[in-house]
Write a structure and sequence with these properties.
two-stranded antiparallel sheet, alpha/beta, PdhA/BkdA, 2 domains, 8% strand, DH_E1, Rossmann fold
Length: 386
């Protein structure tokens, strides 16, 4: 098979992507998904635009903070704002989100204090936020494991009678976000099995940014990743992940199916990671500048901005206010992170389990004794042992 044929039919094909907004910012009709985006008036679109702009500002600030030694590591979401914000806007308040570690845009839409996300990457907290506050669970660094957590949670929601009641304020769906590389993990495939046979109200949302760290999708699959789900009995859809409108419409339909008792859906949002996998990565070692430029011209923020400008729905006063808000937000992120205190080492034992646990208690006691030993032999100074 030639490379051209492989691109046209393999995992990188764009022939069957749901798209409502072209890379040039032109609105195109879709026979199925136009109805699911019909509620997106100018105010909603400006809100999406704002959320993408501020998510990117947060991401760039976090990257800079890591480069300055303020964070140990950072996973960038640069270029993937359309998939995150579009799907995030489709969620209902009662829905539950199980993120991987690149869903900063979803967190922003859900209303999290964004600096709490950075507590994990600064090493001052195991997680940094209360999952129950916004139904947004902790980041998962173990690739794919949370898809099982999400599916199990969805099965619990189903058994609690919170699916198919017809009450839009009560019916609940669960979303699990993961990357293309995670689809090769056993956990994800097991989650597909459980979700299918139990008709769990879960949306399995794959952000296919085309690289599992440094391995391209072409090294992971011969066909589009969404093609795997029907083998488990789960309907799937591929969407242009850089099109915030289409992502919203596709996710909204999938969530509606889940809440109404129609079971799971696999969504593949085809996008591109314009930044590095993490700040410890060098993407120039495995992709070309030409490829990066190709996808830079498909930037999700530029795409929506062009559309809003063409329809005279992006007034200068709005843009000026947003720029000022972004600057203030950036200052808030920098100041808050640098002001995070240094927790006592013993706090690592807090919140390991919801209830007291004998093994954890024993380890805490041993650690306390170990720390005290440095004081007893005179080697301790203020701020901790050396």
């Amino acid at each position: 098979m030639s490379s051209t044929a492989s691109a046209a039919t393999g995992p990188l094909t764009d022939e069957d992507l749901v798209q409502l907004l072209t890379p040039a910012g032109e609105r195109v009709a879709h026979p199925e998904y136009d109805a699911w985006a019909a509620d997106l008036d100018a105010d909603r679109l400006r809100a999406m635009y704002r959320d993408m702009v501020l998510t990117r500002r947060f991401d760039l600030e976090a990257t800079s903070l890591q480069r300055q030694g303020e964070l140990g590591l950072w996973a960038q979401s640069l270029g993937q704002e359309g998939a995150a914000v579009g799907s995030g806007h489709a969620l209902a308040p009662q829905d539950h989100v199980f993120p991987s570690y690149r869903e900063h845009g979803v967190a922003f839409v859900r209303g999290l204090e964004m600096t709490d996300l950075l507590r994990l990457f600064r090493g001052v907290d195991h997680g940094g936020w209360d999952p129950a506050a916004h139904n947004f669970h902790l980041f998962t660094l173990v690739i794919g494991s949370h898809t099982l957590h999400a599916t199990g949670y969805a099965m619990g929601v189903q058994r609690d009678g919170l699916v198919g009641t017809g009450d839009p304020a009560r019916d609940t769906a669960v979303v699990a976000y993961f990357g293309d590389g995670a689809t090769a993990q056993g956990d994800v495939n097991e989650a597909l099995v459980f979700a299918s046979v139990n008709q769990a109200p879960v949306v399995l949302f794959c952000q296919n940014n085309q690289f599992a760290i440094s391995e391209p999708t072409t090294r992971q699959a011969r066909v589009p990743l969404a093609n795997r789900a029907p083998g488990f009995g789960i309907p799937s859809v591929r969407v242009d992940g850089n099109d915030v409108l289409a992502t919203y419409a596709v996710t909204r339909q999938a969530l509606d199916r889940a809440r109404s008792g129609g079971g799971p859906t696999f969504v593949e949002a085809f996008t591109y990671r314009m930044g590095a996998h993490t700040t410890s990565d060098d993407p120039t070692r495995y992709r070309t500048a030409e490829q990066e430029e190709h996808w830079r011209r498909r930037d999700p923020i530029d795409r929506l901005r062009t559309y809003l400008e063409r329809t005279d729905e992006l007034p200068e006063v709005f843009q000026a206010q947003l720029a000022a808000e972004a600057d203030a937000f950036g200052e808030h992120v920098r100041t808050t992170v640098r002001g995070m205190g240094r927790p006592a080492p013993s706090t690592m034992f807090d919140h390991v389990y919801a209830t007291p646990h004998a093994v954890v208690d024993a380890e805490r006691a041993w650690f306390t004794q170990y720390e005290q030993s440095f004081v007893d032999d005179g080697r301790e100074t203020a701020g901790g042992h050396r």
